[in-house]
Amino acid sequence: MSSTVELTKENFDQTVTENDFVLIDFWAAWCGPCRQFAPVYEKAAEENPDLVFGKVDTEAQPELAAAFGIQSIPTLMIVRDRVAVFAQPGALPEPALADVIGQARKLDMDEVRKSVEEQQAAQGGSE
């Protein structure tokens, strides 16, 4: 089929836990911008075989969409080391998607985790 993985509530946690770098495209078949973004996402998946590219069909997986507060589609999310480091609605053009992937690759995850811990501490540790 393709170089992307269909994510469901059954395999989502395992996919995100077992892979250090997961891109997630929240989409639906009826969504025009989602269909326009699909070939861009597929091409990026082919060009970055070391990364996991997942797709969540928000119609088939409403629990996942709700769990992540997806308000509009397509929404692209990047999860590194089980931390969401990027989430943005809208179909990205190819150069912007490549740029986002490049930036996410360069992140110092120790710094990101430290920042998340500081934010959680500031909120009284509640999440």
Can you characterise this structure?
- The protein has 127 residues and is an alpha/beta fold.
- The protein is built from five helices and five strands.
- It has helices at 12-18, 32-47, 62-67, 94-106, 109-122; strands at residues 4-6, 21-27, 52-57, 75-80, 83-89.
- A five-stranded mixed beta sheet has the order 1-3-2-4-5.
- The longest helix is centred in the first third of the chain and has 16 residues, at 32-47.
- It is globular and about 40 Å long.
- The termini are far apart.
- Residues 1-106 form the Thioredoxin domain.
- This is Thioredoxin.
- Belongs to the thioredoxin family.
- One of its GO terms (molecular function) is protein-disulfide reductase activity.
- Pfam families: Thioredoxin.
As residue ranges, the low-confidence spans are none
Number of strands: 5
The Rg value, from CA coordinates, equals 15 Å
- β-sheet strand percentage: 15-25%
- The largest sheet has its strands arranged as 1-3-2-4-5
Please tally the helical runs, counting DSSP H or I stretches of 4 or more residues.
5
Mean model confidence by pLDDT: 93
How widely separated are the two ends?
A: 38 Å
Name the helix and strand elements from N-terminus to C-terminus, one letter apiece: EHEHEHEEHH
Instruction: Name the shape in a single word.
Output: globular
Quaternary state reads single chain
Largest sheet: 5 strands, mixed
Give the helix level as a range of percent.
Answer: 40-55%
> Structural class from helices and strands?
alpha/beta
